[in-house]
Amino acid sequence: MMRMNRAVVAFLAFATGAAIPMCVQAGSAETYRQLNLFGDVYERVKSDYVDEVTDEKLVEAAINGMLASLDPHSSYMNAKAFGDMQVQTRGEFGGLGIEVTMENGFVKVVTPIDETPASRAGLKTGDYIVSLDGKDVLGLTLQEAVEKMRGPVDSKIVISVKREGIAKPFDLTLTRAVIKIRAVRSRREGDVIYVRVTQFNEQVDAGVKKAIADLSKEIGPDKVKGVVLDLRNNPGGLLDQAIAISDEFLDRGEIVSTRGRKPDDVSRYSATQGDLMAGKPVVVLINGGSASASEIVAGALQDHKRALIMGTRSFGKGSVQTIIPLPNQGALRLTTARYYTPSGRSIQAKGIEPDKQVLQPLPDGAKPEDVPQMRSEADLPNHLQGDSEGNGAGGATEAPRSAEEIPEDRAKDVQLDQALAQIATLKVVDGKIAN
């Protein structure tokens, strides 16, 4: 028992900078037996592994392994990674400009960020990054891979990419840059305001309000027919920004609720009075790359019938991650709750199904079976179970989730064309889209 105490105390103290939690001190015999097993393995690795291994490496690996076994979104961030995350949510950071996840041991591109080295180099949603500067990604954690992709501005990195439909990986040389996330883009489409939100960082609510105010003035407030809010390929971001954007179009009612492990662990977020569009029609575009905060906005506006949701079924990430700072200046990203739409629907592993399904046309000469379907939350290993999974109530196969990109050529964007056409037909009565 003394050896277990030394090993485990060293592990916990190094990881958290604190004493052993009271729940462990007062734990059951089984808890101590499992911690004793960890202590035995830890000491054996320290004393007998072929190469000397630092405490830091072993502890971080143990923590990451523990969290990865829970779900795909819980993770540990060391001090550097935590600092990088804080910078990124403010909307400016250094790197290549790629939203990524880890799948089957490789880095998978969720979406390249517009006007960054990644997008200019031609990286696409669904690409796999299999090596960085000639070194395999397999075996790295996601955080390790991300750190390798970051570096001094103007320095170069060669990434090897595996793309579906291409037999062999190919290399791309990218030059790192300061990535300034322009999360909101807008333009006039006739008498309709078009606003695209690419992610939910701290700048989004202010950006959307400014875009709508500026374009309303340009078109003329009385002439504006409505707004198209484009959330396609938006991977999410900050919960408070998703709530704020939903609130901009709602006068009253619940926006979203979160429910945790305990029955009384429920938080509800409600709209305040004031509709940025003064009751004019709203269409929200989503697709298989729309996740998390995007799904909160789409679900809230759909349930309140404030907007017509168009496109294809969203990703299905309906879990809440809480960032918990640690004494070593790092942080724990821990899944602590599920999101629910105002009507009580869980987003998790199911997503938001559009009111009107609209698919982008297939590329010239392509057949339906040639176009890959977007992998969803339900496809991720160890994903948090959704309410509808395993009970016959439906789930990940109810409607297609497309992997199409937003066409660079505006003339080929069929989803946007149909959204604009729909605006002209919609009527809003008492803040709701009339049937």
Report on the architecture of this protein.
This protein is of the alpha+beta class and 435 residues long. The chain folds into three domains: 2-53; 92-180, PDZ domain (Pdz3 Domain), CATH 2.30.42.10; 184-321 and 336-433, 2-enoyl-CoA Hydratase, Chain A, domain 1, CATH 3.90.226. 29% of the residues lie in helices and 24% in strands. The protein is built from eleven helices and 21 strands. Strands 3, 4, 5, 6, 7 and 8 form a six-stranded antiparallel β-sheet that branches. It has a six-stranded mixed β-sheet with strand order 10-11-12-15-16-19, sandwiched between helices. Strands 1, 13, 14, 17 and 18 form a five-stranded antiparallel β-sheet that branches. A hairpin with a 2-residue loop joins strand 3 and strand 4. Helix 1 (2-16) crosses helix 3 (29-48) and helix 8 packs parallel to helix 9. The longest helix is centred in the first third of the chain and has 20 residues, at 29-48. The chain is globular. The termini are far apart. The model is unreliable at 1-5, 10-20 and 391-397 (pLDDT under 50). Residues 1-26 form the signal peptide. Keywords: Hydrolase, Protease, Serine protease, Signal. Pfam families: CtpB_N-like (PF22694), PDZ_6 (PF17820), Peptidase_S41 (PF03572).
